[in-house]
Amino acid sequence: MLSARNILKIQITKVESSPIISLVTAKLENNKTIKSLTTTESVDDLNLKINDNAIAVFKANSVIVSKNECATRLSSANELNGKIVSIKNGSVYSIIEINCNGILITASITNDSANKMDLNISDNVNVLIKASDILIGIKE
Fold first, then answer.
1. Distance (Å, rounded) from C-alpha 34 to C-alpha 13?
2. Are 60 and 2 in contact (CB under 8 A)?
3. What's the CA gap between 37 and 16, in Å, rounded?
4. Contacts 24+ apart (CB under 8 A), 89-92
5. How far is C-alpha 98 from the chain's CA centre?
6. What is the DSSP letter of 15?
7. SS in 3 state form for 48-93?
8. What proportions of the chain, in percent to the nearest 5, are helix, strand and coil?
9. pLDDT of residue 73
10. Largest CA-CA distance found in the chain, in angstroms, rounded
C-alpha cells in the first residue's frame, strides 16, 4: 500500500539513460504519454525494459492545475487535459479530482488558489506534473 493518491498503470515505451540519470517514457492506459526522470541506478534495480508494465506514482501536491490557457510557458514534461469531476474543500487545501480521458488524477491545492481560479465541477483544466516528481514502480 502506498500513501500517494496517484498510482497509474503504465507501459514503458522508451528509456534514455546516462551514467547518473534516466528519462523513462511510458504510455498510460488512455495511450497518452508520461515521462519520469529517475536515477539510472533505479532503472537498473527495477530492470526496466521497453514494453514492461509498471506503475507511475506521484503525490497529489505534485500536480499543478491550470484553467484556460496558461500565459506562461513552463518546462513540465507532462501535461494532460481533463475535466474536474470532484472538489472537496478542507480547512486549508482542496482535493481536486480530474478525469483526463479516462485516467483519474488527484491534485491538492490551497483553497485560496482554488477560489482565485474559480474552479468548479465540469471545468476543463490542464494538469502539469514535473518528470522528477514521478516515481516508477513494478509490482512484485
1. 10
2. no
3. 10
4. 89/114
5. 11
6. E
7. CCCCCEEEEEECHHHEEEEECCCCCCCCCCEEEEEEEEEEEECCCE
8. 15, 55, 35
9. 63
10. 45
Which single residue is written with the C-alpha cell 491534485?
A: 107
Q: What is the pLDDT of residues 70-90, one digit of tens each?
A: 555 667 889 999 999 999 999
CA 134 – CA 29 distance, rounded (Å): 16
Quickly state the pLDDT bin for 69 (edges 50, 70, 90).
low
Q: Does 29 have pLDDT greater than 60?
A: yes
* Nearest Cα residue to 129 out of 40, 41, 34: 34
Q: How far from 14 is each of 48, 50, 68, 74, 86, CA to CA, in Å?
A: 10, 6, 31, 23, 33
Q: Check: pTM over 0.85? Answer yes or no.
A: yes
- Nearest of 43, 17, 12, 39 to residue 27 by alpha carbon: 12
Q: Are 62 and 129 in contact (CB under 8 A)?
A: yes
Nearest to 88 by CA among 63, 65, 106: 106
